[in-house]
Amino acid sequence: MNIDARLIDSALRGWKLNIDRIDEFFHPLSEEQLQKEIAPGRNRLIYLWGHITGFNDALFPLLGLGPKLYSDLEHMFLSNPDRAVPTIYSGKELKRISTRINDSLWGAYSKWSPAEWVEKHTSVSGEDFVKEPHRNRYTILLTRTMHMALHFGQVVLTKPRKSTS
Amino acid sequence: MNIDARLIDSALRGWKLNIDRIDEFFHPLSEEQLQKEIAPGRNRLIYLWGHITGFNDALFPLLGLGPKLYSDLEHMFLSNPDRAVPTIYSGKELKRISTRINDSLWGAYSKWSPAEWVEKHTSVSGEDFVKEPHRNRYTILLTRTMHMALHFGQVVLTKPRKSTS
User: Fold this and answer.
1) Is A65:A108 a contact under the CB 8 Å cutoff?
2) pLDDT grade, residue A22 (50/70/90)?
3) If you count residue pairs, one on A and one on B, with CB atoms under 8 Å apart, how many are there?
4) How far apart are CA A30 and CA A58, in angstroms?
5) Spatial separation of the C-alpha atoms in residues A137 and B143, rounded to whole Å
6) Among the four residues A5, A46, A108, B163, which has the most C-beta atoms within 10 Å?
7) What is the number of other CB atoms lying within 10 angstroms of the CB of residue B9?
């Protein structure tokens, strides 16, 4: 493996690590347990799960992979705060939806060459991209991985006290 | 900039983004505000700041840059839970210490070539590294960036409710 392939491999491992630990955290929870707030008066677990899922679904258009798979996630979990939308996906639905999104993204990630990874994402114009070449797919992969880690740090606060690091 | 340099640039931006938002969060806080817990009965802000700082300080030996700069961080904020060690660094001290650690790390990061980034870290043997070449400095950079993001997600919970994403 040459250097650029190794650098991409590291980033994909970071993405996968977060997908896996989020799945492992949420999958065993009942609908009732998903109603728990991460701290008094803050987001519920179900909302954060939908939020992470919706953020990842938005990667399809951003990375040039086509439209979102579940456009309802946007108003349920991104553009509105928790409890603002009366009907949201259940845990059972989010399990199925997030698995489909993550599997499809992984399929695309696995195919891109290093040159394809540093192509521009769709929110930047060709002109701006010349001046700001870091606005590429790979940077998006890294920032979305950080986004998952950030919210994972919050949801683990609902687990019995032991270690959060 | 060729592809591998661009991939490294993206990761360095992710590191810097987290260093900056953590500094921006903690620097204005008084010693009293740093006593606040992220959630009832959980870690105090001062502990998490020290924890992040200690984790980053441990990068010096792990990346082959020499010994830790502040070995006391280990027992104060890593190997013991919050409130277990009677005397810990103050916010004023952590501000100075974390700045020195982060500046020194950044100095090293800025000098490494792509080939140096994919060299093995010091916790893996040469023999194991042949089988597991992802155990390199670059992977450490990414995982430690995720570590900062994870705890940043927790500390922002102490801010007045608005957005946590």
Assistant:
1) yes
2) very high
3) 138
4) 26
5) 19
6) A46
7) 17
Give the integer Cα–Cα distance in Å for A10 and B141: 10
Chain A contacts to B (CB-CB under 8 A): 1, 3-4, 6-11, 13-14, 17-18, 38-43, 51, 55, 114-115, 117-118, 133-134, 136, 138-139, 142-143, 145-147, 149-154, 157, 161, 164-165
Output the DSSP codes for B13-70.
HHHHHHHHHHHHHHTT--TTGGG-BSSTTS-BHHHHHHHHHHHHHTHHHHTTS-S-S-
Longest dimension (CA), chain A: 51
Tokens of residue B85, six digits: 């060690």
Q: With beta carbons under 8 A apart, name residues in chain B contacting A145.
A: 142, 146
Prediction pTM value: 0.95
Whose tokens are 């991460």? That residue is A38
- Please indicate whether, in this complex, the C-beta atoms of B154 and A164 are within 8 angstroms of each other: yes
Q: Could you report the per-residue pLDDT of A106-120, keeping only the tens digit for each?
A: 999 999 999 999 999
Tell me, what amino acid is at B125? S
User: What mean pLDDT is predicted for residues A82-91?
Assistant: 97
Q: How large is the ipTM?
A: 0.94
φ, ψ (nearest 5 deg) of residue A120: -65, 150
Query: Over the stretch B108-145, which tens digit does the pLDDT of each residue have?
Result: 999 999 999 999 999 999 999 999 999 999 999 999 99
Q: Do B7 and A145 touch (CB under 8 A)?
A: no
